[in-house]
Amino acid sequence: MKKLFAIALLLGMLLTACQSGDEEQGSTKKEAASQQQKEEKKEITKDEIDLNTKPNEAGQIMILMYHNISTPEAEWVRTPENFRKDLQALYDQGYLPISLTDYVNGNITAPAGKSPYVLTFDDGRENNFNYLEDGSINPDSAVGIIMEFAEKYDDFEPRATFFVNGTGRFGPKEEVQKKFDFLVENGMEVGNHTINHPNMKTLDASGVQREIGGQKAYLEESFSKPYNINTLALPFGSRPDKSLYNYLETGSYEGKDYKNIAILNVGWDPNPSPYHTDFDPLAIHRVRASETNVDDVGIYDWIEILKNHPKRRFVSDGAANIVTVPQGLEENVKAPEGKELLVY
Predict the structure, then answer these.
(1) Could you identify which of 58, 190, 222, 278 might form a hypothetical disulfide with 329, taking C-beta atoms 3.0 to 4.6 angstroms apart as the criterion?
(2) What percent of the chain has pLDDT over 70?
(3) How is domain 47-319 classified at the CATH fold level?
(4) Cα(178)–Cα(222) distance, integer angstroms
């Protein structure tokens, strides 16, 4: 018996060591990939830009608009299987996600030869992010699928913005803070989608400010640490009277000011590069991430269009300090302060 016990103990120790080794190897792999990405994003000289990757930082960027991740597939519902298909199709075509904030700020540091895109989810549906009974993240939720994809591919970083409206969204109240904290800790963002999801055309100045300022206050109070809600997705893509447009960007409600750095429409096409002279962060177009009733301007339509018209597609030069564009496109580009323009 003692001999059997000793053998069992030895096998257990070996199994533990193997598991530990696997975990350390996986961790080391992730750390190496992270370090590689940091190196790819470093400041370099113009002579070090690899022009064989055909960089075009004057090109368009897809801001993808999702709502539900559930079943069955419908106009505003993407099944988990199809969302996985979307991420895989984008990855296979050389696309990698970046945060909305980085996009708006012109902090495009995707690896050389890769094209950035932005994931957005409207309405803060519970199927975007929910937990199973054992406390684990539902692998078929939007967040579960994004995190799963990030584990599968070392160069895929979990980046997405969840636009939440109202106070009863995103699942049970006691879980909201946990979810919001998780998103931010893992590189994702939370945005404003107003309190009541109204048609903004029906609102006056006070109504616009109440919808935006009130929701900002609720969302920021739902984090365990300070967080600034400064992006807005317009309900139905609607806007108030033009004389009130300024309240979409800045305003005040119950003594608290707000200022949005990005305002997102419901859209039909990719948005300009943040370096392009046509770029307007207060009127960002989005692409419907759907295959139902998209009128030939859905996600797969644009993947194909940009594939067939490469001059329209943003391709990164991999440099944090340089904006690289093909000859003939430089007149429509303005390099931000601190960045150099390279024309080839």
Answers:
(1) 58
(2) 88
(3) TIM Barrel (3.20.20)
(4) 9
